[in-house]
Amino acid sequence: VLAFPPGFNVARVFIDRHLAEGRGAKVAIRTTQGDTTYAELAAGVNRAANLLVSLGIGPGERVLMIVKDSVAFFQLFWGAIKAGVVPVPLNTLLRARDYAFMIADSGCAGLIYSPEFAAEVEPGLAQSGHRPVAVMLAEGGADSFAARLAAQSEQFEAVPASAEADCFWLYSSGSTGNPKGAVHRHRDMVVTSEFYGVRTLGAREDDVFFSAAKLFFAYGLGNGMTFPLWVGGTAVLLDARPTPESTFATIERFRPTLYFGVPTLYAAQIHALEARKPDFGSVRLCVSAGEALPAETLRRWKERTGLDILDGIGSTELLHIFISNRPDDIRPGTSGRMVEGYEGAVFDEEGARLPPGQSGRLMIRGLSAARCYWNNPEKTAATMLGDWLNTGDTYTCDEEGYFAYCGRSDDMLKVGGIWCSPFEIEAALIEHPDVLEAAVVGNPDAEGLVKPEAWVVLADGVRGTSSLQTALALHCKERLAPYKFPRRFHFVEDLPKTATGKIQRFRLRSQE
Ligand code: 3UK
């Protein structure tokens, strides 16, 4: 369906094409700092490509980006791709230990970070034992990426690549072990933009896109950068934590037509709507992904705003949403039907396809699937099975092709739409002197959204007070990314275990 000429470099169609199509004066990006036109963006991208070349960073080499949602993110990401360099946007909420791993694992040639994240990135770099040839701040100071662009030329010819060539990576975390770098190709953003952005959402040139999910998530990268650039629309960026207040203020100020959130944020926004009702007049459609959207959240949102929410499931490995509800066909409590261009099926443990209604492993086939995990043949072999990709999700599919989420086949939790490993939280808890043993599982809160819950055996003589709960939550937040902490604690005498001493986590899950 999609044609890619020889030598295809995806920066030509997402950046250069707009000048050829006369869109140079149109606003591509809006932030509270000001607007950036397509012509300005294209010039900044070329300057960034020239800067990377001048630093001696060449095709195939990686540049890690720990960069907040900003024009610099766009310039660096596309400048790298245009020069054949592989940009790797990282989650900006992580800790030094996480960055140390990714810096070493990627063997990056460049590391560029917003000053806000220096306190975790700089010790991470020191711990990594790897020395990238170029390390710089994204902005702030004469040596920063933004400042150094000024000395570069605004002309740059895209380095020839191909639809199948490696283009960018995104790291995804697993329940145990280290994060895995999903290697995406030049064609992948075209595939997601056309099949999901245009043909599922109906994205158009006059759309204004606002994603509460940040650009470093595959979800945010599509919503807030790829889709607007594909249709020649406008992206609105929020350089702050997405809260009901900050998102409402952004919607009122910039009047987006498409709004992208996650279930936890919709739930918080619904509460905030009781106190203040912002003007949603510009929005024609809301989207949710990252974790299942409870039917009740959708019902309340529609009741209070008059707007629909399209739930769809996507993944870092497939880059964006591959099963989705449609504007004219919404089944609350389901992920909807297959997005055009993707094939999906539910399999049993032996690899046989299951009949409608039975739950099993959801496998997906599609042209935006990651080629592999970098430097990780075991995880690649377990996930990428020929051209099928194992999502790790348990789903049912009914006679009419509607898919419904049943749970994960591993222990991973989605908390606020972001991956969270219960084992990582347990490991942090048992580092606390008052904790003898800990088990963490996901249980739904009052909103029907999964939150980590801890069962803790305390050291002799320690009392399970509410101030100890606060202290343990803080202890986790300090050691781990700030969203990785138990929302509820249970202090118990012992944990349920098998005869061989293995913790029976399933006994701690409320649904079982
Ligand atoms: C879960 C959902 C039920 C599911 C993502 C949109 O979330 C994204 O990517 P991640 O790699 O996580 C993937 C996993 O998250 N999930 C996501 N959406 C839903 N479960 N209903 C949903 N609507 O376990 C999936 O395997 O962080 C979402 C676009 C791009 C993305 N990368």
TrEMBL record:
Transmembrane segments: none annotated. Residues 424-502 form the AMP-binding enzyme C-terminal domain. Residues 20-374 form the AMP-dependent synthetase/ligase domain. Keywords: Ligase. One of its GO terms (molecular function) is CoA-ligase activity. GO terms for biological process: secondary metabolite biosynthetic process. SUPFAM superfamilies: Acetyl-CoA synthetase-like. NCBIfam families: benz_CoA_lig. This is Benzoate-CoA ligase family protein.
